[in-house]
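FAQ: What does a multi-protein file look like?

Like this. Sequence, then tokens, then the next protein.
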Amino acid sequence: MFKRIIKLTFVAVMSLTTLLILQSFQPKNTNQKNSQWRGEKRNGMYLNETGLLKEWPIDGPNLLWHFDGLGDGYTSVAIANEKIYVTGIIDEKLTLFVFDLNGKLLNKKEVGSEWTINYVGSRCTVCVNDGKLYIGNALGHMYCLDEKTLEQLWKVDLIEEYGGKNLKFGMTESPLIVGDKIFLTPGGETHNMVALNKHTGDLIWSSKGKGMPSTYCSPLYIDNYTIPMVVTNMHEHIIAFNLNTGEEIWSFPQKNSVNVHVNTPLYSDGLIFSSIGYRGGSMQLRLVDNGKDVEEVWTNSEMDNEMGGAIRVGDCVYASGHRNRYWFCVDWKTGETRYKVSDLAPSVVIYADGMLYVYSDKGVMALVKPNPDKFEMVSSFNVTLGTGEHWAHPVIYQGTLYVRHGDSLMAYKIK
């Protein structure tokens, strides 16, 4: 009897131990979803979206709902945990709007001051991460709010606290978060890029980098190498920082006539594509020495995308020019322009389910088939609601296309 009791106790203890071990390997916050600028890898590709329409009705896809009253803004929507987050400027204040997926306004909160000098409008897309909202403004302030209560948890002033230098059109950086670090680019001589604790806003590391101003760019995380890196554009260089220490890993000269480099670099298979803009064209760099350095592969003097992003599909990269007002298809391997057409330029581009979604600054939303041999626009419609410039990057979520045009947010059924 005594032996049987010992045996049962041993089995119970082992079962409990096994359960605890298994639980320790389970991911935390399994129901918590995150959202950031231009999708999961910041490359504008929404690869989880399938079964989407390959052609639209002549008047465009069905408009499910729209909301007017966002104020001035150029930010994309962030969608996580069945909620939509977007910001605008109301009475010169940065204002956060929260909707459900049916377009019902759930909450509206004044966050802080905002840019009112030129091209008035919110610039930094909300980042949703592990139950918190991270919201930047063009004045160099970064706010962290509780996702459920919208209570402010911390605030950092990149100009006052880290010697940052504001820009002609205001800071325009959608924050990058990796693990417990949030990466921001004050652009100061000493604090060129900083990594803060995402929970508290406390400084983890600061890098002098090149000691040059930032340039409206939202950084990119690359983890394929021994040293994980954060890559971003600065005033006259594209530069990589050690994610863990802030040490500069490599930098490469990148200049145009105004030193404005807005687009997040595009990474694929050991290669980095960077659009220089303003007649500076584009270039591709190859990571060498296990990511510790880069070398130039090619330059293309024509494709000078300013802020619309680029998409790689197969052996081609698709994007519009800026000063060179054409829609381009460029060979990914050689940099050769395969074709260029005057349609849809300048424009923003994203990708889902085998198709390009191109939103021109004339207000045309087009469905384009990525074809390496010829331009193939399948469908299009005019975005007539909203105000100001057509610059916000669209977002696709669960078969719905979200288009922000200034004061208005529209949701189109594309599945």
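And here is the next protein:
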Amino acid sequence: MANIFDYLAWRGDIDFSAAPFNPVDNVIFSQLAYLAFDDIVPVPEDRDGISIDLAARIYNEKLNNSHGRNFTPMFKEDPDLLLALASSKRFRNCQLFAFVNHINTDREIQFSALCIHIGDGSCYIAFRGTDASVIGWKEDFNMSFKEVIPSQLEAVEYLEKMAPMINVPLRVGGHSKGGNLAIYASSFCNKKIQQRITEVYNNDAPGFHKKVISSDGFNEIKNRIRFYVPQSSIIGMFFEHGSDYTVIKSNETGIMQHSLYSWEVTHNNLVHVENVTITSRFVNKTLQDWIGVLDNSQREQFIEALYSILSDADIKSFEDLEKTWFASAGRMIKSLSSTDETTRKLLMETFGKLFLSARRNIDSFFKQEQQNE
């Protein structure tokens, strides 16, 4: 059950000139995009870079001095990963640059990205996935009724801004929504930039509106997409993808398999398995059927109503919800009770359709599974 930390122990002393870039390196760089590099990694306008080694030292100092205030890593393993990278010959001299990170509730956008000079004559452009903010998750849910969301447009703008400054082949990737942004940016960027992209890495990301999949830009980069999902993938099964996926073995269960730290690795690859689990297929079919019975207007109204309840309850992140779940639950119930009858009816009917879809698919999936045994 080896993971990326084991990979660093096995291969960290081998630089990219001796062992070429591989899918595990992609996972590491995608995870690196989640770290709070504000005021550590230079912004695009500076045109400077900082080594992973130096970035790790500054980050660790900030973490130790913060005493947990406003500097809580999104993934508890992230600080250890950064230190392990800084201690490795393979990664410590990789240059980080052009870091951006912003959340705008008015525009309903959560966007972050950075560039990484790898040391093999190429650059990896990493887009961050959804963070713990409620607005970040709302933006993801907006994909269910919008052809394009603000962070996708921001990703195109970022790629087109950075590519002219980087005169090397490009790899573009990310985890969760970050993988979605990587594909969207690569599909709709300038054609000259598109030609420089060697691979696009999608690590368990939600898909797209059908119009994106049918676009000329997507078809141009389709064969360069490397799409990975864990055995019990849920997030990576959402919406349309238009490309085949490779299933990765995970040492976790259920939704926890979404974490890249749970993905199993070999000395230079991810561990493949034959197919996603029946649970993954059940959840995917249930959600697709549920979304399918709602038109765009109903989807938007449902998501807006749910977000309104969280906002009225003063819940800005899922960290808030987790730390004060009892008080938060009370505020949510109070918020729900104060909403108008039309909104309450909408929520109840929509959730009812979800449960109905689940009941139908339990019969069709699991009874068929029992018959096959």
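Q: Is there any per-entry metadata?
A: Some entries carry free-text notes. For the entry above: The longest helix spans residues 341-372.
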